[in-house]
Each structure stands twice: as structure tokens, then as C-alpha cells.
Amino acid sequence: MKTVKRTIGTMALAATMMLTVSCKEGNKNEPATPMSNEMHQESMDDKDDMEMNENKGAKAVLQDYFKLKDALVETNNDKAKQLGTTLASALGSFDASSYSDSEQQELKDIMEDAIEHAEHISESDMAHQREHFKILSKDLTDMVAITGTEMKIYEQFCPMYNNNEGGAWLSMNEEIRNPYFGDKMLKCGKVQREIN
Amino acid sequence: MVENQVPATIKNRLQISCYDCHSNNTDYPWYSKIQPAAWYLKDHIQEGKDELNFNEWATFSDRRKNSKLRSIISQIEEDKMPLDFYTLIHRDAILSDEDKRMIIDYMTALKDSLE
Fold first, then answer.
1. B115: closest chain A residue by CA
2. I need a labelling partner for A179 at 20 to 30 A (CA). Which of A4, A160, A196, B39 fits?
């Protein structure tokens, strides 16, 4: 009986391997992510200005984050995947050099964590994307606490997400568009805080 | 955490159920010497370690530990880990409901202490 079991096991193993291999190959054929990263670099002459730094870092990150959030509001899995990749690269090129040592350390920790969440979003199903988006939102809220922001941002919160655990997110618009539920509960949530 | 202060029962459970793919201490099985299992496993274990390597735990920031713990908890809760493919051969790696409860409670407490 044991040998039979083991043989079945081995056969199943072989089958699993073939399946997994073919899935993997399939993934490689996905079209390359379009880089929608056209940042408007304003004046290049105020290089030492903090604002310049924000343009290179936090602002670029936030803009890609908002696009990702909108894709989740639309419950658009593929679009969110692409935007996850875009955001991961914006996070990766974040320049923290003008901040204090302790802020740099904090920002480095934030970026490391956020990149991992953005990368997961680029390869997950909707439910999983939203799980990662929740932590990503926390990371970016902490980033903004250090970098500040020149645009007005709303921190919004839906108490029902993940079996009433709740989930927060950032938005440029005061009006609620829920990224955790999409059109199932588009307007569930409230503005928790205004940041600017 | 996972290296020194973990209760023995949990550490033991993690070693049996997780460490083959999520640490540097892979206990390679008999079939790892046979192709194509060999390259398949190599690929798979690398993927597992990229995702989470318990040997690197001490180098993670609290923020990162928090994220990892959250993922571990959700993977176990949703029965996504250990992989079916793995438990098919390693019957001792299957987590009982009690094991799951114990690990999830521990990881949750640890996560809360980091927040």
C-alpha cells in the first residue's frame, strides 16, 4: 500500500511539475509594462530646494500610487498589475539623500517594504492586491509624514474591509471611491484626515 | 524572533513544515537527485527563499517583519502553505488545526508587539 501511495505521489509530483512549468512559461509572454512615468519636471534650476527633492521622490511615488488606487477602485486586475510594476520602480528610484540620517533610515525601511508590496501587486489576484495595498498605504502615509506633500491629500478609511478590520488609503479627492471593494461598495468610507 | 526566542514547539513545527524552502537549511529529499525534479526543486526553493528566508529575519526592519508576519498568517489561514505539492511527500509537514492555531496566535502576538 505504501509503495502504491508513493508511486501515486511521484506521478502527481511529475504532473504538478509539468503544469507549473507551463504556467511559468506562459507568464513570460505577458506584454512588457508600459512606463507611464511622464513626470513633469518643473524648473530644473532650484536643485537644492526641498521641493525639487519632492518632485524626484515623494511626488512621483504618490502619483503612481494614486493611479494604482484608481485601478483597484475599477477592480481592474491587469491594470493594477502593471501599475504595481510602475510604482515599484518609482519607489526604487526614490532619492532620500537630502533627509537627516534617522529619516533616511526610516525612508529606507519604508521603501524596502513598499517595493515588496508593489511587486506582489504586480503578480497577484484582486483580493491579494488589495491586501498588499492596505500595507502599502500605511507605508506611504508614513513616507508623507517625513517628506511632506505639496498637494493636498486625504486619508480615507473603510471600516468594513477584511471582515471589519478596516483599511485606510490615500486620495487626492475628497470624495470617497473605495479601492478595497470597488463598485460593490464604491462609497463606503470616510475622510479620516487631511494632509498638506 | 524565529531564531532564538521562539518557543520550542513552534520552532520545531516551523522547521518541519517551512524550513526546507524558507531557510538556508534545506533538507534535500531523495528525489532531489533525479532530473527533472532536481532543477524543479532548485527553482522552487529559490523562490521560497526569495519570498521569505527565516535566516534573514534578524536583518529585517520592524516594518518589514510586520509585513512578513502578516503574509505568513494569511498564507497559513488560507491553507496556501505549506504547498500541497510539498505535503504530498512530506506528510509530517502537514499542519493540524491545532498547529495552525498555535502558530497564528504566536505570529499575531509578535506582530502586535511590533506595531
1. A138
2. A196
